[in-house]
Amino acid sequence: MEEKIKYAFLKVFRDQIISIVLYGSYARAEPKPYSDIDLLIVVRELPEDRMKLHALLDNVEENLKELYSMLEEKGYKPILSPIILDIDGASKIRPLYLDIIFDAKILYDEKDFIKNVFEKLRRRLETLNAERKRLGNLWYVILKKDYRFGEVIEIE
C-alpha cells in the first residue's frame, strides 16, 4: 500500500514533492472500515490556484483506484485525507506533528527534510519528558508531567 501511495503522488506532483508521510491508523496497522488514509505531503510550492491543487489530488486518486479496489474487497472504504504544506509551512513545528511523530511512516523524504523536523520535535519532547497516552480510540500527549499551573510550555 505504501509504495502505491508514494508512486501515485510522485507521478502526479513530480519534482514538487519533498516528503510523503503516512500516519494514523493505517500507519499503525490498525485501520477500521471507515478510517481515512492520513497523509502529510510536503511540496516545494503550493499551487496558487486551489482548483489546480484539487485537480492534482483527483489525479492522485485516479492512480490509486487499484489500491482502493483491493482495500474495498477487504471491507475498507478508503478515503484519502492529505494535509499538504509547502516547505516553509512544514519546517515549523505544528501541533499536528504531536500526533504524527509517534507512528509516522515516512514513505519519501528528499534530503531527510521531514525526518529532521520530526527529530527536532522528538528531542524537545524528550527534554520535557513528554508522554503519549491512549484513551479508548483516542491518543493524546502529556507535554510535561510536572506541569505547574500558569507555566508556559514551548515546543519550538
Using the coordinates above, name the CATH class. Alpha Beta
How many domains? The number is: 1
Q: Which H/E pattern describes the elements?
A: HEEHHEHHEHEE
Strands across the major sheet, in which order? Answer: 3-2-1-4
Largest sheet: 4 strands, mixed
Low-confidence stretches: none
Helix/strand-derived category reads alpha+beta
CATH topology: Beta Polymerase, domain 2
**How helical, in percent, are the residues?**
25-40%
CATH superfamily annotation: Beta Polymerase, domain 2
Could you please describe the fold and organization of this structure?
The chain contains 6 helices and 6 strands. The chain starts with a helix and ends in a 14-residue tail after the last strand. The chain has 156 residues and is an alpha+beta fold. The chain has a single domain (2-111), classed as Beta Polymerase, domain 2. The model has no long low-confidence stretch (mean pLDDT 92). The strands form 2 sheets. It has a 4-stranded mixed β-sheet with strand order 3-2-1-4, with helices on both faces. The chain has a two-stranded antiparallel ribbon with strand order 5-6.
How would you sum up this structure in a few lines?
With 156 residues, this protein is an alpha+beta fold.
Provide key terms for this protein.
4-stranded mixed β-sheet; 40% helix; Beta Polymerase, domain 2; globular; 156 residues
Write the layout of secondary structure elements.
Layout: H1 2-13, E1 17-23, E2 36-43, H2 50-63, H3 65-73, E3 79-86, H4 87-91, H5 95-100, E4 105-109, H6 113-128, E5 131-135, E6 138-142
Parallel strand pairs: 2-3
Antiparallel strand pairs: 1-2, 1-4, 5-6
